[in-house]
Amino acid sequence: MGGTGATGATGATGATGATGGTALVLGGGGPVGGAWMTGVLAGLTDAGIDLDRADVVIGTSAGAIFGSRLACGEPPREMYERQLTGADRLVMSVTTAQTLRFLWAALGSRDPDRSVRRLGRAALAARLTPGPDLPDVVRPLLRGASQWPARALRIASVDAHTGQVEAFGADSTLTLVEAVAASCAVPLVWPPVTAAGRRWMDGGSRSTTNLHLARDCRRVLAVAPIPSAVGPHPHARQEAAALVAEGAAVTLLAPDRASRRAMGRDMTADAHRLDAALAGHAQATALADTVADVWHGRRSER
């Protein structure tokens, strides 16, 4: 069985077959990570990887936005082209004070549960400058995808009070816009989203990929712009390894050195968006055969 490295593409096959089905998992990454993700999706598609074969799309934060659009039928090439032309921008402004408060909350405990609950308390208590409601910001970013698609879609968010991850789908009481907004509510940047009588914050608060939501799938392709959440939380490769141990065939695709250089350190910097998208496309093109080995079942299982 191969390893589950954090950069490039790594395929691994479990020993006992999982339940069945295929999952495309799209992680969080802010505006820059989202741009890189569109490049990856377009690069894979251009190289002949059939992303439509996914039985379920699982999205977190930026991945919730692009995963929803993909599940609703928008071609990856179109999403990528909109990044290249600047027609599709996820504008996000984060101050130094917000960053420091976020780090103080997330890094204040070595226990994952305590860490995310600290972050939730900070998010609930924060007094933010009044602005548009997050659902109103998210709605145009979905490019008309306002209804849950027929294709299975799971959107991850975190209960700000309990720190538990919830997966919203068409059977939930939330609208698609509410679910995506809940997944994108970055603590201390946006207030938690109120929906279904609860308060929700960014789905990437304790896991940027939430790969555990694909435990019922036999094949998993995960695209992780930021492989690990801030704080004492598992890295995406650890989550991928857990799925492999349960019998799934997993491919984890995270930024390689060239992509990380193109993306820079600030995932909100619009100046890096174009280079990030181009780097994602180049990386995916170079690794398409490796991805196809698992995604299309060309790698033999044991």
Structure, briefly:
This protein is α/β, with parallel strands linked by helices and 302 residues long. It contains ten helices and nine strands.
Descriptive notes:
With 302 residues, the chain is an alpha/beta fold. It contains ten helices and nine strands. It has helices at 30-46, 62-71, 76-85, 96-106, 112-125, 134-141, 176-184, 236-245, 257-263, 273-295, and strands at residues 8-13, 22-26, 56-60, 152-159, 165-168, 193-195, 198-201, 219-223, 249-254. Strands 1, 2, 3, 4, 5, 6, 7, 8 and 9 form a nine-stranded mixed beta sheet that branches. α1 packs across α10 (273-295), α2 (62-71) packs antiparallel against α7 and α4 (96-106) packs antiparallel against α5. Mean pLDDT is 90; it is low at 1-7 and 12-18.
Q: Structural class from helices and strands?
A: alpha/beta
How much of the sequence is in beta strands?
15-25%
Order of helices and strands: EEHEHHHHHEEHEEEHEHH
Assembly state of the chains shown: single chain
Question: If you compute it from the alpha carbons, what radius of gyration comes out, rounded to the nearest whole angstrom?
Answer: 18 Å
| Poorly predicted tracts of residues | 1-7, 12-18
Averaged pLDDT: 90
Q: What helical percentage do the residues reach?
A: 25-40%
Global outline: globular
Distance between the termini: 8 Å
Number of helices: 10
User: Biggest sheet: strands, sense, closure?
Assistant: 9 strands, mixed
Q: How many individual β-strands?
A: 9
